[in-house]
Amino acid sequence: MTFDLTPTAAQHELAERAHEFARDHIRPVAAHYDRAQEFPWPVLEEAAARGFYSPLFYRDLIGDPTGLSLPMFMEELFWGCAGIGLAIVMPALALSAIGRAATPEQMIHWAPECFGTPGDLKLAALAISEPEGGSDVRNLRTRAVRDGDDWIIDGHKMWIGNGGIAHVHVVNAVVDEQLGHRGQALFVVPGGTPGLQLVRKLDKLGCRASHTAELTFDGVRVPMENLLGGPERLERMLAERREARGNGRSGSATLGTFEQTRPMVAAQALGIARAALEYMTSYANRREAFGAPIIDNQGISFPIADLATQIDAARLLTWRASWMAARGVPFERGEGSMAKLAASEIAVRATERAIQTLGGWGYITDHPVEKWYRDAKLYTIFEGTSEIQRIVVAQAMGAAAGRPPLHIDLEPSGGPLNRMFGRGTPARGRAAAAALGMRDRVPAPVVRAAMKVLRPPR
Hints:
This protein has 17 helices and eleven strands. It has helices spanning 9-36, 41-49, 55-62, 69-80, 82-101, 104-115, 230-246, 253-286, 298-327, 335-358, 360-363, 369-377, 386-399, 406-409, 415-421, 426-437, 444-454; strands spanning 116-117, 120-121, 124-127, 143-147, 150-161, 168-174, 184-190, 196-201, 212-223, 288-289, 292-293. It is globular.
């Protein structure tokens, strides 16, 4: 297993550039956009100028074989502000869905339309959730019916980021009534298509700089080329799922999209949690009560220690899930959901504790912790609630019952030489014992050379 936590030079520079952007261009305006609930177009323009708002940028990060570039970028961006961060990365969620389903020709056509170019920015939306079905994909009621060379979509979508103002909407709809949620397909609906109606922009508790909407689709007609993957692929998929249903198996393209994006969302929550931890620690160091900094009080310092531990644990889960996604290792134990569950819940705990640490100051808008608290709560809800994550993990563990842990179950790397002479092998142990046994009869330089081979890395 070649999971390495050392960042490459490019990853290190990416994290530094993202942090600088968040510090200098996001944080100074975060409170304004939160109060006004305005879409942060100037910040998006700055992101685009820095290369952070582009389909090629996100495809490049997704293609990182270590899997760490994307979560490192996300954490820094959302350390700045979750609402503005969502406005910047929302098209990447749509791009991820397109990338999983589209033909190469569709990818080339639609990916640039999700972002536009500096000075001519565009938006994209992933329209999955509905008033009667968010995490419960079995209850999604939007339907698409074929009409000659077109598809006609009717339905109702809710909680859609960039919904109604996006240039590209990626919409899931049931195309086979008998298969239900297993008979869904993804369509591209351009903004302004007749029948696509923005019902209202939602007034939210947090992440208020991002646009979230309720949409209706009333006889929305799209051409065949807007069916992601094309008709032949759709027919093959439906045939496979009819057979799988007959064999007692099930699956959903929508759930697959969620599972792959959950590490990305977990990294966003980590950014909020880390911001709160850093802020409360700094405050506790300089705030004095009863003649000493309040961090000297165990009632303050112990919760900070617990939060620091839990944030690092959630980050490791997130990086592992991202590494698995990059390497094509299936999430057979719900590893993506583990990461999202841990990160989202520690974000809520960290921001709540930050308010408590600041006391009355934490409850008013003079400090950003009350905003972070409102922002963090979203992460236990969207992309699957915490309850859904627990269901996914529990079901995955039930299906994997009796199997060894992931690090034992994975296909080993290193080849036959590593198997024979790697650390901990019998051959290596016998060589070490022989070297120690001959230490009095062998010249010292030879013994030192042997010990250098066996010693742990420094």
